Amino acid sequence: MTVTARAEHVGSLLRPDYLLIARSAYADGTLSAAEFKGIEDRAVREVVALQHDVGMPVVTDGELRRESFQSELAASVDGITGAGLDAWLWGKWRSDEFGDTSLDRPADLAVTGPLRKRRNLAAEEFTFLRSCADDVTAKVTLPSPTLFASLWSPERGPYRTLDDFLGDVTQILCDEVRELVRLGCQYVQLDAPHYPLLVDPAWRDFYERRGWPAERWLAYGVELDNAVIAAARPATAGFHLCRGNQQSRWLVSGGYDAIAHELFGTVDADRLLLEYDDERSGDFAPLRLAPDDTTVVLGLITTKRPELEAEDALLARIREASDVIGRDRLALGTQCGFATSLLGNALSIEDQRRKLALLVRTAERAFGEL
């Protein structure tokens, strides 16, 4: 079944305080694994109920069981060391409202042994989500394979080349999506925020100094993404691109123009989830490069601030985008997740609920049937 929803959010949702407290207690040994699992289950039930209450046609478990949206690879395999929370947060993060912050790459973050899977990444998450998701699509989010390229170093570990390392990463993700489909998953979304980094000269230089010119890096990355998408068929494939999202901060600015030609027309996704919540995202012109059979989910609703967007302003932007590719190929979404990691953005859970309700309301006005 192809997912045709005209409203969806990217995937991650805010963790309630009691879940964060329980995670800390579990980490320091004062809460058992069984007790922590029960608290996680409660939190997922509540966050799915929130999505049901506002009428979301696509629901997730909010990634509530994860430290970060990408952390489950390191958590489920042997061979990666130093992969604590900072492993997913390093970089120069910017915000006019909250101030800039910078975090160095952890010195002990490394691939030190062959990747050996100990458990599935998201199969257990999906099985529980499926039991809570009544008559709506349950979506699972996974990281793009090349998002993990920065873990590899030619100086350390068993992998002589980046190709060898990412080959194993891709195989693990392919095995994961096959298991998800076997369990009944109909919608898998790959998150690939590293591609929009290439619109920034400093990040382009970072990749090029490691021997990955931007054009080659895009082509190589999409080849691996397409392998995961092929393994996930017949599930619908979503593909999310943003410019960084941590504690209401971002990494880079710039339109999709620099990467759209190499990316939009070559990734085999059914749905492109794109960030378009402010001027940092550029205009809608690159959407003309999206294939005719691809739905573009316009991320017009920001997850970085609690203020609600005006419905009429959102409708005006949807009309503007429809001049480029046509309204029948559009859907409305959030710009990114509300909590890319357990730290979350500077909103409350009630703010989050109001944003999701706005998303559904506006999509109904714009498109009618969701």
Label this structure with key terms.
single chain; about 375 residues; alpha/beta; TIM Barrel; 8-stranded parallel sheet; two-stranded antiparallel sheet; globular
Helix/strand structural class: alpha/beta
- The radius of gyration over CA amounts to 19 Å
Strand content: 15-25%
In spatial order, strands of the major sheet run 1-12-11-10-9-8-7-2
CATH architecture: Alpha-Beta Barrel
Explained architecture:
The protein is of the alpha/beta class and 370 residues long. The protein has one domain: TIM Barrel (Alpha-Beta Barrel). 37% of the residues lie in helices and 16% in strands. It has ten helices and twelve strands. The strands form three sheets. It has an eight-stranded parallel β-sheet with strand order 1-12-11-10-9-8-7-2. A two-stranded antiparallel sheet has the order 3-6. A two-stranded antiparallel sheet has the order 4-5. Helix 5 links the parallel strand 7 (137-143) and strand 8. Helix 9 packs across helix 10. The mean pLDDT is 92.
